[in-house]
Amino acid sequence: MIQPAYLTSGNTIGIVSTARKISREELEPAIGLLESWGLNVKLSHHLFEVDHQFAGTEEQRTASLQEFLDDENIHAILCARGGYGTVQIIDQLDFSKFKSHPKWVIGYSDVTTLHCHIHQNVDVETIHGIMPINFPKDGSENESTKTLKQALFGELDQYAFESQEFNQLGECEGELIGGNLSILYSLSGTNSTVNTVGKILFLEDLDEYLYHIDRMMMNLKKSGFLSGLKGIVVGGMSDMNDNAIPYGMSALEIIKKRTSTLNIPVAFNFPAGHCEPNKALYFGRKCTLKVGERESILTF
């Protein structure tokens, strides 16, 4: 994998929305914090366009991201928010200049489409992390933004986090990939599906029915997506829904059941996803995962 250059004071970070609409007011806290890090902030031309729930039409969102991918004076691209819509534009993008002059692409949730497509087709590392819509409204720094800054400036080395009862103990090494479970499921069979062989998979999700979590996990298992993995890291499975007749298992219990036969280390309880903190991760970066009885350690 190609590693983009870490940021330094005076670099420019571009903000673009590939999915849902966002307002200038919602962005102001993030702009102020990024500038306090010594970064120049550039907003995409169509950032505040509105097309129903989207940040502009598919053509406008494509043009905005393409401009930032091609601009050698932009050193990182921060997606403003998720929602839905990145998959609508992914096949219209040209990554040739981006590969020649790589830069960090940052986001989570719906931005999983970008992470997977870039890893599978462009071989450039990306950052799974907090987006401007989630920055503290008072402009302060919290654990999520702190780890994003560390990742961007090359100061992120290791996480230690408390073990969870469903953990499968062990140690492994591989490139970290993944993101939002629903997006990974939706990309199955497409040119954006990431090759998982020899990799460590990160999973998180939000606001899904429990039976759907099982449906998605069964798809990944039956399709072979889980077969060649070296390990799994499970982040937030937040605000899950159940039917009138209970499903009978939590999201974590479902994932435990569907991964227990893989005979690989599985670490639950990593603080990332639709939760606070949402700690930054290098996707595409080789790392070591140690899952112990008392704590798990992820080292880049």
Automatic annotation (TrEMBL):
<dbReference type="InterPro" id="IPR040449">
    <property type="entry name" value="Peptidase_S66_N"/>
</dbReference>
<dbReference type="GO" id="GO:0008236">
    <property type="term" value="F:serine-type peptidase activity"/>
</dbReference>
<dbReference type="InterPro" id="IPR027478">
    <property type="entry name" value="LdcA_N"/>
</dbReference>
<feature type="active site" description="Nucleophile">
    <location>
        <position position="109"/>
    </location>
</feature>
<keyword id="KW-0645">Protease</keyword>
<dbReference type="InterPro" id="IPR029062">
    <property type="entry name" value="Class_I_gatase-like"/>
</dbReference>
<comment type="similarity">
    <text>Belongs to the peptidase S66 family.</text>
</comment>
<dbReference type="InterPro" id="IPR040921">
    <property type="entry name" value="Peptidase_S66C"/>
</dbReference>
<keyword id="KW-0378">Hydrolase</keyword>
<feature type="active site" description="Charge relay system">
    <location>
        <position position="274"/>
    </location>
</feature>
<dbReference type="GO" id="GO:0004180">
    <property type="term" value="F:carboxypeptidase activity"/>
</dbReference>
<dbReference type="Pfam" id="PF02016">
    <property type="entry name" value="Peptidase_S66"/>
</dbReference>
<feature type="domain" description="LD-carboxypeptidase C-terminal">
    <location>
        <begin position="173"/>
        <end position="289"/>
    </location>
</feature>
<feature type="active site" description="Charge relay system">
    <location>
        <position position="204"/>
    </location>
</feature>
<dbReference type="Pfam" id="PF17676">
    <property type="entry name" value="Peptidase_S66C"/>
</dbReference>
<protein>
    <submittedName>
        <fullName>LD-carboxypeptidase</fullName>
    </submittedName>
</protein>
<dbReference type="GO" id="GO:0006508">
    <property type="term" value="P:proteolysis"/>
</dbReference>
<dbReference type="InterPro" id="IPR003507">
    <property type="entry name" value="S66_fam"/>
</dbReference>
<keyword id="KW-0720">Serine protease</keyword>
<dbReference type="InterPro" id="IPR027461">
    <property type="entry name" value="Carboxypeptidase_A_C_sf"/>
</dbReference>
<feature type="domain" description="LD-carboxypeptidase N-terminal">
    <location>
        <begin position="13"/>
        <end position="129"/>
    </location>
</feature>
<keyword id="KW-0121">Carboxypeptidase</keyword>
